[in-house]
Amino acid sequence: MPIKLMKSILHALALSGVLASSSALASDVQPATWKSVPTQSVTAGDVSFSYRELGQQNGGTPVVLLVHLAAVLDNWDPRMVDGLAAKHHVIAFDNRGVGASTGKPANTIEQMADDVISFIKAKGFTQVDLFGFSIGGMIAQEIVLKDSQLVRKLILAGTGPAGGEGISSVAGVANYDLIRATLTGQDPKQYLFFTRTPNGIEAGKAFLKRLQERIDQRDSEIAIWAYVSQLQALSAWGQKRPADLSVIKQPVLVANGEDDRMVPTRNSHELAKRLPNAQLIIYPDAGHGGIFQYHEDFVPKALAFLAN
After folding, report:
1. 39-307: CATH topology
2. At what angle do helices 224-239 and 135-146 cross, to 10 degrees?
């Protein structure tokens, strides 16, 4: 086509508004965020795993999120997930028998780790980064001990090693705060995740508000028998003989608040000491949910860790 004719056509389209509307349409296509990304499922063996997937799916190492006690997909902080997804391919899922995933809930950390490995392989991933929070961090440790080649890097937040101090008592702490929250009309995470200082209380309120940002396609709440199974797993993990963590050569980022009541902060220090390639972040005036309270600081640090 002659260049003059092409210019004439483009000029006519611009005058008619066709190019402008096409450009506007393209700009209206926004990447999925945690509050809008669809929930999907994948089958591995006899389990249908419910998951959400977003971010930069451009060949980089996927980041698999492993959530805390009694949590489902909607318990991940949107600022955390969206922040990671800005640079990475991020996947969060419900383990067997939790939320919308099918099957009988596992009652040991080892069984939970096997299920995560099954999910990762069902998704077709050959290597992943693991971000485990609380019980999720215990599962992440077990995964890398079971299948070292599957894991590139680990982020372990608000968690501890097998046999760690106070871990076998998590059930008592969680149930006590569940009762406190019921009596005061609050969410248990306000007590479990945050300090009772003015900063901690306000951070808890902001966090809980963020968890409600997603309106459509919310996940199913955890069933009582799944919660009990997780408490059994935590109790056994807390009484388990300590593992040799020196065999974990992957880079590890360990993070917590300075006053974690659920998984005492000294466990984070212990992890950082026993893991040969670990970095440690401890946030002041923060508890179990310190990474959520300080998400504006933690997300950039997590991105830098995953990138290096």
Report:
1. Rossmann fold (3.40.50)
2. 60
Q: The dihedral of CA 140, 265, 83, 49: what is its sign? A: positive
DSSP for 167-229 reads: GGGHHHHHHHHHHHHHHHT--HHHHHTS-SSHHHHHHHHHHHHHTT---SSPPPPPPHHHHHH
pLDDT in tens, the chain (308 residues): 444 444 444 344 444 444 334 333 334 456 789 999 999 999 999 999 999 999 988 778 999 999 999 999 999 999 999 999 999 999 999 999 999 999 999 999 999 999 999 999 999 999 999 999 999 999 999 999 999 999 999 999 999 999 999 999 988 888 898 899 889 999 999 999 999 999 999 999 999 999 999 999 999 999 999 999 999 999 999 999 999 999 999 999 999 999 999 999 999 999 999 999 999 999 999 999 999 999 999 999 999 999 97
Strand 39-44's sheet: what is its strand order? 39-44, 47-55, 89-93, 63-66, 128-133, 151-157, 252-257, 278-283
At 239 the three-state DSSP class reads helix
Distances (CA, A) of 107 to 26, 56, 104, 230, 262: 48, 34, 9, 6, 19
Residue extents of the structural domains in the chain = 1-30, 39-307
